[in-house]
Amino acid sequence: MGNSDTKLHFRKAVIQLTTKTQPVEATDDVFWDQFWADASTTVQDVFALVPAAEIRAVREESPSNLATLCYKAVERLVQGADSGCPSDKERQIVLNCTRLLTRVLPYIFEDADWRGFFWSTVPGAGRAGVRLTRETTRPLAESLLLAVANLLFCPDFTVQSHKKSSQVSPHVLQLRTRRRRGNNFLSPHSIRPVLFRTELLKLLLTCFSEAMYLPPSSDSKSLNPWVTFFCSAENRQALPLFTSLLNVVCAYDPVGYGIPYNHLLFSDYREQLVEQAVQILIVTLEHDAGSAAGSALQALDSAGPDNLFVNYLSRIHREEDLGFILKGLARLLNNPLVQTYLPRSAKKIQFHQELLIVFWKFCDFNKKFLFFVLKSSDVLDMLVPILFYLNDARADQSRMGLMHIGVFVLLLLSGERNFGVRLNKPYTLRVPMDIPVFTGNHADLLIVIFHKIITSGHQRLQPLFDCLLTIIVNISPYMKSLSMVAANKLLHLLEAFSTPWFLFSSTQNHLLVFFLLEVFNNIIQYQFDGNCNLVYAIIRKRNIFHHLANLPTDTASVQKALQKKRKSRVSRTNSTEAESMEGSRPAVPAEPGTLKASLEATPGIDKITEKSQVTENGTLVAVPQSDSPQAAADNSAMSGASDTESNSERDHEPRGSSSVMLPVFSQVLSWKGKLPLQTIMRLLQVLVPQVEKICIDKGLTDESEILKFLQHGTLVGLLPIPHPILIRKYQANAGTVMWFRTYMWGVIYLRNLDPPIWYDTDIRLFEIQRI
C-alpha cells in the first residue's frame, strides 16, 4: 500500500509540474523535493510515471520549470558528491535525481534550442552579494559530470569501504592483473554498490548521447563537449575512472567456476555493470580531431591528446597489463563459443560488438598493444571468435554493423606481417560453424569463412568483398600450406568473379579478380613449396585462367554476356562443398520485427588503405599509388568505385546490378591488358605437361600421387622475377570516423531498451528501422 502511495505522490508532482502556468521558484524546496525524496521509486517507475509527451509539454509551455528541475537535480547530485552520501536518505536522493536526469536529458538534446542549456552557468551566478568563483560560474554540464565522477567513488555507496581505512583511495596507477573468478552472483551486501554504479554509469552514457541528436557530419573534428570535458584535466577522477572501467571489463568472468545453470538461478548484476562500463569506454575513446589524415597516433604525437582516456590508453606498456587486457577481452569474446555437455548450461554474454570496438581502439591507439597481440599465437584467441561472429551473422541484415566491424578489425591486423605468420598454426578447435569440415590451419579457416560470406551472405555485404579479399591478399605471402578445401574455395571465387556478366556489369568488379590473382601470385612466388594443394587446384581449374587471358572485349560479346546474367550475384553452387561441422546451425536471416540502426556508407577500399611495399630487410615503405603494381587498373575503376559502393549500400542493389551502365570498352581493354597472369601461365606451361605425362606413364587416377609429385616439384629459375610484396594497411579517414560513430551509437541505442532511454526521441545520427 505504501509503495502505491509513493508512486501516486510522485505522479501528482509530475502533473503539477506540467500544469503549472507560472514558474516555480528554485527556492521552493517543498515542491522540488517531491521528485526525489521518496525511497521506493525505481528507475522503471520514473520512466513510466514521467511520459515523453509531458516532458515535451513542459519543455514547450513551461521552459523555466524544466530548467529549474534540471538545475535542482544537478544541485542535489553535487551536494551528495560533496558530502559523500553518508546516510541512506542522501543516497536515495542521489539515485532518484540520477534516474530523473536519465529520463529527461534525451528530450533536452532533441531540441536544438535546448542543447546549450546545460552549458550555461547555474542560476544565481553573478547576483549581488554572491562571490564569483570557478564553482559558481561553472556550466551545469560540468557540475553534473564532476558530481557523477566523484559519486562513483563514494565509500559504502558505490564502492565498498575497507575496515582498516576510513577513506577509499581510487587512484589505481596500474591495472589489476588478477581476474575475479567464481561467484559473480554477489551477496546482498555487495550487490548494492554494483547496482548504484550501474545507474550512475547509465546517466553518464545519457549525458554523452547528445551526439545521437546531431546529423551525420563529414567534419571529423566535431567533438562531443560532454566527452571532451569529462576526459579533460578538469576531471580529477579521470585516471581512476579509466583504470576502474578497464578493470571492471577485463576482470569479468561470466562463467566463474562453471557451475551449470547458475545464471538461471541467480541474477548476475555484475554483467549489467560490465556492459555499461564497456559502453562508456568506447564513447570516451572516440578521438578523431587534430590529424588531417585521421590517424589517432598522429594526433597523439602532434598534440598529446586533450582526451586523457586516449592518453592513458596509449601509454599502457607493461607486458603484465597488456596481457591482462588481451586475456580479458579474449575470454569475453570466446564466451559464446564455449561448448558444454549440458545444453544452455553456461552463461552467454551479448555485448560482443562493444568488445570488438574496444579491441579495435586499443590496436589503433596503442601500437605496443598491437605488437603484443601479434607477437604470439594469442592473436588467434581473438581471430576465432571474430570469424565465428562473421559466419553466424552473414545472412542477418540487422547485424551488418557487426559484419563490418569484424572485417575492419581483421583488415587492421592483416596489415602486420606477424598476423599472416601466426595463421599457419594448425586449427584444432572444433567450434560448431556451418562450414565444411577440414584439416588445416587458421588461414584455411579464414578463407573458408570468407568464401561462405561471399557466396551465401546477405546481398548488402557486397561492398565488403574488396575488404575480404584485401585481407587474404595481405596474408597470402605468408601462407605456408593451404588445405585442399581452402584452395578449392579460392578457385571457386575466381571462377564466380571472372564470369563475363559479372566482370562487365560494374566498373570495379574486375578488381576482385585482380585481388585473387595477386593472392595466387604471392603464394606461387613466396610459398610454392608447401602449397601443392593450391597448385593442383590451379592445374585442375586452368581453363579459368585461359578464359581470362582470352576474355572477349568487343561490344557484341559484352552485351551478349550481360544478357546471360544470372539471378544471383555469384554462383551459389560448389561441387566441392562438404558436410558442415557437427552441431552447427545455419546462418539465418533476421526475424521479422527485429530493430536495426542504419549505417553510413563505408568508403571504398582505396580510401581506407594505403599501399606499402615490403623491402628485403622486412620493413615497409609507402608506395605512391601510381608506382604500385596494378595501380593503373586500380585507378581506372577506383575513381567511380566509392560512389558506386555508397549508392549500392544505400539502395541495397548488388554490385552486379543490371541498372549500372555499361563500362566504357576502352576501360575494359585497359584493365584486361594488365591482368597479372604471367606467373600463373608460366606455372601451367611447365607443370601441366609434367602432370599429364606422369598420369599417362604411371596410369595414375589417385590425386594423392599427383599431390606427392607436386610436393617435390620445383619452379626455381622457371618463374618470372618475384614481384615485391604489396601490403594494404588500414588508414582511417573522415568517412570511417563517421561510420564508427554511427555504428557505435546505434549499438548503444539497441542495447539499452530497459529502461528505453532514447526510445521514441528524435534521433538524427541514424534511423531505427524495423525489419
Automatic annotation (TrEMBL):
GO cellular component: Golgi medial cisterna; Golgi trans cisterna; membrane
Region: Disordered, residue numbers: 559-602, 622-658
Record's compositionally biased regions (Polar residues): 636-645
A Pfam family of this chain: Hid1
Name the UniProt record assigns to this protein: HID1 domain containing
Record organism: Scophthalmus maximus
Gene from which this protein is expressed: HID1
